[in-house]
Amino acid sequence: MNSKLETYTRDNYPEKIFIHTDKTFYTPDSQIWYSTYLVNGISHTKSKKSTVVYVELISSKDSILNKKMHYISDINDAGDFKLPKNIKPGKYYLRGYTNYMRNTNSLHFFKKEIFVLATDSIAPDVKQKSTEQLRQKESISQKPILKFYPEGGYIVQGLPNRIAIQLPEKVFNDTAVVVHIKNKNKEVLSTFKTRKFGLGEFYLVPLENETYVAEVDIYGKKYQYLLPKILPKGYIINVVNKPNGVYINLQSNTNSVLKNSTLVIHQRGKPIYSKQIKERINTKTLKIPVSELDSGVLSVTLFNSHNLPVCERLIYIENSKKGIDVAITTPKDYYCSRRKVNLSINIIDFQKENVPSNFSLAVKDKKSDPNYSIAESIKTWLLLNSDLKGHIKNPNYFFEDSKDLLRKYLLDLVMLTNGWRRFTWQEILNNENKKFEFLPETGIVILGKTLEMKSPYAPKSLPTRLTFLGKEIIQEPVQISDEKGRFKYGPYVFFDSIPILIESRLTNFKSKKNKDRNVLITTEKEKRSPDFFLKNDSIYSGIDINPFIKKYLEHEKYIREIDSIFKSRDNILDEILITAKLDDPETIRENEMNSRASYGSTFNRYDIEKDYDFADPNIYNLFYEMPRVNVEDDTLYVGLGSNSKALILLDERQIEIAELQSLTVGDISFIDVLLGPDALMFSSSGPVISIYTRRFGSSVSSTRNIKRKPGIVDFNAIGFYTAKEFYKTDHKDGLEEKTKPDTRTTLHWEPKLKSDATGNVNLSFFTSDIKNEYVIEIQGITNTGIPFFKTTSIYVK
């Protein structure tokens, strides 16, 4: 087992991403500031695989509104999204992933919920009943869900089984419910109350030919639930997690059944312990010292003599001697408006030594992000949620007070009620030499094909050459495309956009003959984003956030009142009336389409955004509805006859028809069918179908404004995203700041800070006109892979 685990940790380790945002609640026309972290999923140190990360802004209807491509040179990078003025209020998501992470289910990508709230809307009505109990009672209209989680996985006859239960509905988060465990004679064997998050547990030694039920008493109404099937023979794991060590007890109800079984302990796939039991015994106990472990989820698995996993238990380890503390020092806690605040930050270990780290910092109005205390942090994500099945309700609750014994107890129940998420033994045992479809990306790659100029545009192996036409002209060595005409240049690391020229010749680049240029060059389009599935795994799924939203909207109203007071003090000029004639929407739309098409307008144009139903995702159905276009055997023809086969362009670059399968109707803006002289710009042998995609804000497409001539294609290659700089208000020397109201709710944002072993990180910012409590939030990770999260407060009076 150890060798397989070592192969996994060395070669096939997963990657993890975390995105830290300045806050959770936003208004239209505001800026989302974020820092995205990329780490090795096992060690939580810098990943040695990918350096390219994609971050997307996604609506609640699975529509990608904007997308950024980041180059991670160290461990994190800064980013931002500008929200449109007309964005619809509601829930949105930030999603982060690497190309290598696409080898797993996209549900494993990092996902963060944010909320866009309209300041002129009415705050959600949080109904207040006479008592909290009455409100909860009314919300229970049917039989509640009750789930059972035996320790180790199964209930085994004749052994002392520890069984956790959960009432997952949020109404039971803070309501204790009485549970009775009864046998078939209705005798009560155990009685207990659920605790926070609807969690509870009981012990049971099941007897042969006996059945058991859990009876739940909810406000005088009783519900019964049959316990899971009881195994006549099997194994159990009992774990006691103490500060000095983890005590593990293995038991079987058959004599000598533990002989030749193997106990394996690992942490995120890193081997901790592996030993085969040689004795003819049915019980065994061992201790694992906590001092040797990192903080995080520990997995204990028992394999039978046939090397099949038969019992598993997850444990959360908190090793205080490997913990990190963040010391945030300010000269004072209380400030007046528009005053300078100096911060000193130290990242220190258990021995009070400075630790080299990467981190990000936000200083925000507490009322502008009132749910920050329940939001997910880099610590809760890397050490807890990312390694479990499903999301944990309010994960930060378990980390707020490490000395709280109740929280530790509830966290152990969370371990019992969740299973391993990223790591499966089937993958380790059966796919050790697995070949991944999606490879790690380390830069921008320019891909394309060389084809014959005439139909059927067969691929041709030819010499190619790529030239960068920036401030400095750089020409790559000549490369021969393969037998399928494919060529590849890169990976490159550049930012913003760079003009690129790609050439090809039938013979060589020394030839001056025009006919040697009769080569058609196509470049590969941007990779389609992975599918996005909404899933009820929100960290807020068990929490009523309406009170937070109400507080936020009330605070935004207060901010607008302050803003209006300042504006009323300004000098008001006499009214000047300026009139202008606006184009009607149809003219604006037509001008927009004409500007995208290099040939301007055309007679045969189909406006998909305006005239077609996006509910039908099949792109081929668009062509069936076009009078001049025929679809036969996955080929597009214009008019009648085989001689009218159309050349297909996507954003004015040639593609194969098979590439259309990756698109849906919702991806298309408009389609032009070019005939006669209009088509000659792209093809001398027939009609052209020119397809233009919809524009969703910024894109990471590798090509823009492609221009083609025989043997040449040139375009602007889009590089990695460079984040905008957070505007730092200066009330001391800034003239503009002195004449305008300061209603900032995010006082300061630092997406990329580094500390080393030499000492402090110092920075400063100014307070605003909003008098309130401000939260200083720091999230980051040490160079050795220990995540940390810390908050403190200052007050503006």
Biggest β-sheet strands, sense, barrel: 6 strands, antiparallel
Class from helix and strand fractions: mainly beta
Please report the distance between the alpha carbons of the first and last residues.
61 Å
> Helical proportion?
10-25%
Gyration radius, rounded: 31 Å
Determine the mean pLDDT. Answer: 85
Strand content: 35-45%
Given as residue ranges, the uncertain stretches (5+ residues, pLDDT < 50) are 122-135, 697-704
Number of strands: 48
What would you note in describing this structure?
The protein is mostly beta strands and 797 residues long. The protein is 11% helix and 37% strand. The protein is built from ten helices and 48 strands. Strands 30, 31, 32, 34, 43 and 44 form a six-stranded antiparallel β-sheet that branches. The protein has a five-stranded mixed β-sheet with strand order 2-8-7-4-5, with no helix packed on it. Strand 37 and strand 38 form a beta hairpin. The longest helix has 24 residues. It is globular. About 3% of the residues have low confidence.
